[in-house]
Write a structure and sequence with these properties.
The complex is a heterodimer of chains A (224) and B (207). Chain A is mainly alpha-helical and 224 residues long. Chain A contains eight helices and two strands. Chain A starts with 9 loop residues before the first helix and ends in a 14-residue tail after the last strand. The longest helix of chain B is centred in the N-terminal third of the chain and has 28 residues. The chains are: A mainly alpha (224), B mainly alpha (207). The interface between A and B is large, with 68 and 70 residues.
């Protein structure tokens, strides 16, 4: 069933991430501030991949794949209508943030951004229990992955941004753990995981059903 | 829409997020994340290269945060009348913060600063005061580590990276208990040293 449920996020991600994230913040109480900030965004110069060292681009593309995975997972979960109450609300807010991360990485990487894989979440988005269990695993994995890659980043500005995202993933991990009835912080120290370890775990889920053919497209193609 | 069901996040009460910060972080969330953070980071960081001497200063700032956290949770468990989830939270987090203090003191050795004095009367007056202060303090910890990461040598960085995400978990945990938004921003912004010290003073650090 590898291609049974390919979800295509083009329609929800590329342009809507902005508005979605804004909604998330609006609901969090930042109505005035959020509106002002969005209005100010147009003044920011577009970024280009050229400003980022090649080795950092490689790390960013790796992080981008994990962000694609998370964004798709939350988006599909939201669409499945299986979630209720606080869990549904959390999926909505976290999904918007993961899509904002995708958008930010893609903008930073420009044409060097890796394309979006196709996903098959094997049905875990269709029940609240399996959604939460998977969300906890994903978020803990993201924390360990960012931590494992951080020391490889050369650019100070990229590093500061990556660390700021790293702690947001940790907040998400704690949030999902709380909703799942798990202790949000089980140890005084969070350990990093290597890319090899992370890849192995991701592969074992079979959630990535197909890698993109091209890495040079700024927008992935529609697949129907 | 389901907006009305969302727990209301009062920035002044629940998280200590100022309007100024909300402006910045909203911009980050709105897709300008990497660009905007770059600008903030550049303004806050000095140009000095990482060095053993610099590590000492940075690690002592982080130690100050950890001292404050450990002392705050210990005081709250004694004075704030914590029950249920809040009490469980405070016990677990106190143990984590004590480990962090021990770790940083060990890393600094003789160079470790002495523990500051505190007045936690206001922030341990009751459960509400405790929960608000805990959320603010954990955010300060996250911002402090994130703000200093690029200033330290690799070994100090690797150690700090293992702590900062635990602080972020605490920050989300206390907000979850209080029904506030555990992760209101798409990117956590770095705090410079002044902001860290000011934040700690506001919560009762005296010296």
């Amino acid at each position: 069933m590898s291609d049974a449920l390919p979800i295509d996020l083009v329609d929800v991600d590329v342009d809507d991430a902005l508005a979605e994230a804004h909604h998330g913040l609006t609901r969090a109480g930042f109505i005035v501030a959020g509106g002002a900030a969005i209005a100010g965004l147009g003044a920011l110069a577009p970024t280009t991949g050229a400003a980022v060292p090649a080795s950092d681009r490689e790390v960013l593309n790796y992080a981008l794949v994990l962000e694609y995975l998370q964004a798709a997972f939350y988006t599909e979960s939201e669409r499945s209508k299986a979630l209720k109450g606080k869990t549904a609300e959390a999926a909505k807010v976290v999904g918007a943030v993961e899509r904002a991360h995708v958008k930010a990485f893609r903008e930073l990487l420009g044409k060097k951004a890796v394309g979006r894989p196709h996903f098959d979440f094997q049905g875990v988005t269709e029940k609240e229990g399996s959604f939460l269990k998977t969300a906890v695993a994903f978020e803990d994995l993201a924390v360990a992955a960012y931590k494992g890659q951080a020391r490889r980043i050369r650019s100070k500005s990229v590093l500061t941004s990556a660390l700021g995202i790293h702690t947001v993933e940790a907040r998400h991990a704690a949030w999902m753990r709380y909703l799942n009835g798990d202790q949000p912080a089980v140890s005084a120290f969070d350990l990093p995981q290597s890319r090899k370890e992370i890849d192995k775990i991701v592969a074992s889920t079979k959630f990535i059903s197909r890698r993109p053919r091209s890495t040079s497209r700024s927008k992935p193609r529609y697949t129907g | 829409m389901e907006r009305q069901q969302t727990p209301v996040h009062d920035p002044d009460k629940a998280s200590g997020v100022t309007r100024e910060r909300a402006l910045t972080t909203a911009a980050l969330a709105a897709g300008g994340a990497l660009v905007t953070v770059t600008a903030i980071g550049a303004a806050d960081r000095s140009n000095a290269a990482p060095s053993a001497e610099r590590d000492k200063r940075v690690l002592n700032l982080l130690l100050r945060v950890e001292y404050t956290e450990a002392a705050f949770y210990a005081a709250a468990l004694k004075d704030a009348g914590l029950t249920g989830e809040l009490e469980d939270y405070a016990r677990v987090v106190l143990a984590h913060e004590q480990e962090h203090v021990g770790f940083l003191k060990g890393a600094l050795g003789d160079a470790a600063d002495p523990e500051p004095d505190y007045d936690f009367a206001a922030v341990t007056a009751d459960e509400d005061a405790f929960a608000d202060a805990a959320a603010k303090l954990e955010d300060i910890a996250v911002g402090a580590y994130n703000g200093q990461a690029a200033n330290v040598t690799k070994s100090a960085f690797l150690a700090a990276a293992r702590i900062v995400s635990v602080e972020a978990r605490h920050a989300a945990w206390i907000r979850s208990i209080r029904d506030a938004d555990p992760a209101p921003d798409a990117v956590d912004s770095p705090f410079d040293e002044q902001r860290v010290r000011r934040g700690l003073r506001e919560l009762g650090v005296q010296s």
